[in-house]
Design a protein that fits this description.
elongated
């Protein structure tokens, strides 16, 4: 069951970031073409691409946390073996979980609520929509880490 939920989350994030990447590439090509070929630079693509790049990067980081490929300091973890090593991984994931809940979700929700009345200059989209990726990613990281901690619990109990 854990693997199935994780697979669905992985596919969702990878599909979304793939779509965003295609839009980023197409938007960049359009920006260059409109500027140099048509001598009439597109006004909206610069802002759109900036926001999409932020969303893509944060979703990519979320996927990295979910697949345990995030940047980490491994020398401490590598000093331990067996259950001690697993305990260090669990403690590390609990810190990540706390960060995702307090900073990304709680802080992200505050930023979204605060900036919902501000509008972007060109696209005229509420800035809260732009910042909404923070609490969304926070929730996804929490789900990933809870699933991973459940896997660790099964490892500690000797189940696979």
């Amino acid at each position: 069951m854990i693997d199935r939920i994780k697979m669905v989350l992985d596919r969702f994030i990878l599909t979304l970031t793939t779509i965003f990447t295609f839009v980023l590439v197409a938007g960049a090509i359009w920006q260059v073409a409109s500027r140099y070929l048509f001598n009439a630079p597109s006004t909206f693509t610069g802002e759109l691409l900036r926001f999409l790049l932020v969303w893509t990067a944060i979703l990519g980081a979320t996927y990295a946390f979910g697949s345990n490929q995030h940047l980490s300091i491994t020398f401490i973890k590598e000093k331990f073996k067996g259950k001690s090593r697993l305990s260090v991984r669990i403690i590390n994931d609990l810190f990540i979980l706390a960060f995702a809940i307090l900073v990304m979700f709680k802080g992200g929700m505050e930023v979204v609520q605060t900036t919902m009345t501000q509008r972007t200059p060109i696209l005229n989209v509420p800035m809260g929509v732009v910042y909404a990726i923070l609490p969304v990613s926070g929730v996804l990281i929490v789900i990933y880490k809870l699933l991973l901690i459940k896997e660790y619990q099964q490892e500690l109990n000797g189940k696979e």
